[in-house]
Write a structure and sequence with these properties.
By secondary structure, this protein is of the alpha/beta class. The chain has eight helices and seven strands, in the order E-H-E-H-E-H-E-H-E-H-E-H-H-H-E. This is 2,4-dienoyl-CoA reductase.
Amino acid sequence: MKKTILVTGGTSGMGKAMALALKEAGWNVVVTGRDAERLQQTDLDLQQIAGEHAVIQMDVRDPEACLAAVNQTRARFGRLEALINNAAGNFICPTDELSPNGWKTVVDIVLNGTFNCSHALVKGWQEDQVVGGQILNIVASYAWQAGAGVAPSAAAKAGVLNLTRTLAVEWGYKYQARVNAISPGPIERTGGADKLAMSPEHAERIRRNVPLGRFGTPEEIAGLAVWMLSDQAGYLNGECIALDGGHWLNKQPF
Ligand code: HXC
């Protein structure tokens, strides 16, 4: 029987690439997002691929909406095995100029949103007696390094990385679930690239700091996600894989 996966923030960038690739790989795919127009376009794009899918409008900051999305998915496909916590929010702002609500907004999307969706998912696992489910989280290398100028995102991603490891142990024992993470480097055609590479000069500086000399693509992230969620990766648990061309290891960029 086909397995079902829910991808948050799946209407653009890496989320959309992962959704399309997972449908190609034979999953039933459910995409959530906040923007109705983007959801409609994603629905059309997913229709080009054989199989079943659905789109749901929701905000990961709303725990009840997360539970409703999981229950809607279970009603449609019988059960929900897997989740990609891809939805994120970010902006560059010096921390001493950041408002408390700016901090809260990013932490709410990234860290609390990951918890909200994971918690809703496990309620479904309990009701449907799902064993061997999966969660894939998206972090960034500033989860374990410094994130000057993006403090709320860095702190939240650090939380998500810890939650990845914590749930890998807790839900590994309890549900034989696998919980892993990807740490993408600079990836083209993403919200992160649009927001963080502020000018062509800045983007060029980032590119030069990548040992492989280029940005990654959403499709490369999607390829890794498909493998991490496959049976081939059945012994992978609590791991974070950096797919970044060696970017974070490059301590001497000059
Ligand atoms: C300072 C800012 C700001 C900015 C927003 N705020 N943008 N402060 N500089 N550039 C403050 C606002 O003033 C407000 O605080 C608070 O944040 C909430 O802003 P809203 O616009 O009302 O929030 P909302 O509409 O919910 O939008 C959330 C958002 C937005 C995060 C601000 O950008 C968004 O929805 N982003 C989703 C897509 C995204 O960001 N993708 C990139 C992910 S990149 P006050 O005090 O005024 O009320 C990523 C990692 C990349 O995750 C890593 C690459 C290596």
